[in-house]
Amino acid sequence: MTKRGSMYTLCMLRTLMNSSKTFKNWKGRYKNYSTEMIESAAYIVMILLMVSFFISFIRLLIGPSLPDRVISLDLISSISMGIIITYAFISKKIVYLDTVFIIALIIFLGTVTIAKYLKETKTKDD
Q: Which parts pass through the membrane (predicted)?
């Protein structure tokens, strides 16, 4: 992702987190219904990400081969990034998004390294 693209993403997330309309509820108090609905959806997304995290972890433990375990580890890291992004959205702190970019770079390098290792061991076996 380019620098401009990542800045655009951060600006859009900040706008979404800060843009909210308040309405009077039936008691005459001002409520922000759109924010409540979005936060409820974020909590549901967090629960679904946690469930998929544990399913992927089980796949990591019982994977029959090394490539299956590598793929499940990559999936676990992607799900972890989704959990961090969802938590950043819920807590309204954009600082956590930098962490996601760093994790993505490290996981990408790890996946490429493991893929090279698997390719070399396969060619040695043949």
A: 40-58, 70-90, 96-118
DSSP string, the chain: --HHHHHHHHHHHHHHHH----EE-TTS-EE-HHHHHHHHHHHHHHHHHHHHHHHHHHHHHH-SSHHHHHHHHHHHHHHHHHHHHHHHHHHT-THHHHHHHHHHHHHHHHHHHHHHHHHHHHHHH-
Give residue 112's Cα distance to chain centre. 20
Q: Where are the domains of the chain?
A: 3-125
Chain centre to alpha carbon of residue 35: 21
How far is Cα 81 from Cα 69, in angstroms, rounded to an integer? 18
Matching residue, tokens 């655009």: 8
Over residues 8-57, the pLDDT tens digits come to 666 666 665 555 555 555 555 655 556 778 888 899 999 999 999 999 99
70 and 118 Cβ atoms separated by less than 8 Å = yes
